[in-house]
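Project outcomes to date are best conveyed with an example. Our students and postdoctoral researchers have been running inverse folding experiments weekly, and each run begins with a structure described purely in tokens. The record below, which covers 168 residues, was selected by the lab manager from last quarter's runs and is presented without edits.
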């Protein structure tokens, strides 16, 4: 159940998978039809060079098609549902608590290791492909891990806890 497999599997809860599937169906159906209708109506107005409504609708269509491709790719690569074992090993689907080396024991941060699309209210989600996510993936509670932050600085974190995300 590693999100770092050759295909780039994405761990999703069943609820997140269902929401993304519904969003995709809506975008490919009613939303796409409405944008196409707006483009057609704007095209019928005449001169396209100075037709702001036409250009805005075409731009919206580009964004819509990009989101459709993103959702299709994500759902194709999704691994759904199974909560990882409660063994203290960091992997997608785990709620991870960590602190930076040198910080006080009570200065911790907690996040869900998984796709941002499943980010539950009140809990940040980090992708397993993010610098922190890829560094700690596969490590155990109590281990210290180093990683390179996006700014190029080397950081060290201690994995304080790793428990399965239960959806609560």
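After processing, the design step wrote out the following sequence:
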């Amino acid at each position: 159940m590693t999100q770092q497999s050759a295909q780039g599997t994405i761990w999703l809860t069943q609820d997140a998978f269902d929401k993304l599937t519904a969003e995709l169906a809506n975008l490919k159906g009613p939303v796409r039809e409405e944008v196409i209708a707006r483009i057609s109506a704007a095209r019928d107005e005449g001169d396209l060079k100075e037709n702001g409504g036409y250009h805005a609708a075409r731009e919206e269509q580009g964004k819509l098609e990009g989101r459709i491709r993103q959702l299709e790719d994500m759902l194709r690569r999704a691994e759904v549902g199974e909560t990882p074992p409660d063994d203290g090993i960091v992997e997608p689907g785990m709620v991870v608590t960590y602190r930076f080396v040198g910080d006080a024991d009570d200065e911790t941060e907690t996040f869900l290791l998984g796709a941002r699309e499943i980010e539950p209210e009140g809990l940040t989600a980090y992708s397993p492909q993010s610098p922190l996510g890829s560094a700690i993936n596969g490590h155990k509670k109590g281990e210290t891990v180093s990683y390179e932050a996006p700014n190029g600085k080397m950081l060290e974190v201690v994995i304080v806890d790793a428990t399965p995300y239960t959806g609560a």
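The two ends are 21 Å apart (CA to CA). The longest strand covers residues 154-164. The training component of this project remains on track.
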